[in-house]
Amino acid sequence: MPAPTLYYIRHGLTDWNVEGRLQGGRDTPLNDRGRAQARECADVLRGLFARDGLAADSLHYVSSPLVRASETMDIVRSALGLAPGGYAREPRLKEIAFGDWEGLTYLDVVKRDPTIVDAREARKWGFRPPGGETYAEVARRVGEWYATLDRDTVVTAHGGTARALVGHLGIAAPDDAAHQPIDQGCVYVFADRTLTRYA
After folding, report:
1. How is residue 131 annotated by DSSP?
2. Of 53, 117, 167, 179, which has the fewest beta carbons less than 10 angstroms from its beta carbon?
3. Pairing state of beta strands 194-198 and 187-191?
4. CA–CA distance, 74 with 80 (Å, rounded to integer)
5. What percent of the chain has pLDDT over 90?
6. Phi, psi (degrees; rounded to nearest 5) at 197
């Protein structure tokens, strides 16, 4: 039996995204552009569902519990004509934890330690920010969640959890997965161990 298809949406833009701040587990709301991106994602989904012969209410919906992801899901579901709150919130889909770096920009981090960002970029999959998580650890928790899926699912979560899933599924080697671009305002389809971007 083939694995379920994931229609994966990174949450819409927040003010912290604009400022280049590391969000991690911090709860930051969408800004106006982020809410518009969520509506754009609903339009993309509508087209994908029509292409794939799916009714919007036939899929499972699940979000990271962080507000920027759940607000994205509420908007997406409303635009698809579904009840905003009718979905699961899954703690294993939370963004990678940046620990002591959360709320900081990379410039702030570099001021603390000029070599640390280069060290992270050189071995990003296994790098742990002070008090934070590695991508390898995120891949384990996201992989545990993925193993529970039994039907096609719409997900709203984060760039870090998407990269971890790319590595877990073997779509890219771990170090390449950790550098995978995951944009806002589009839908990523995980199907047959491939990843395709739609906007």
Report:
1. T
2. 53
3. antiparallel
4. 10
5. 91
6. -100, 135
135-146 and 159-168 helices cross at what angle (nearest 10)?
80
Q: Is the pLDDT of residue 44 over 80?
A: yes
Do the strands 153-157 and 6-10 form a parallel or antiparallel pair, or are they unpaired? parallel
CA 196 to chain centre: 14
Catalytic residue status for 158:
no
Round to whole Å and give the CA distance between 31 and 177: 28
pLDDT digit string (tens) for 127-174?
999 999 999 999 999 999 999 999 999 999 999 999 999 999 999 999
Token pair listed for 141: 């928790």
pLDDT digits (tens, 9 = 90+) for 78-100: 999 999 889 999 999 999 999 99
**Average of per-residue pLDDT values in the chain:** 96
Closest by CA to 56, choosing from 82, 78, 19, 36, is 82
Radius of gyration for the alpha carbons in the chain, expressed in angstroms and rounded: 16
Of the candidates 90, 95, 102, 133, the residue annotated as catalytic is: 95
Domains of the chain by start residue, with CATH: 9-198 (3.40.50.1240)
Q: Report residue 32 as tokens.
A: 């106006």
What is the pLDDT, as a whole number, of residue 151?
95
pLDDT score, position 121: 86
In whole angstroms, what is the distance from residue 161 CA to residue 90 CA?
A: 12
Write the DSSP symbol of residue 190: E
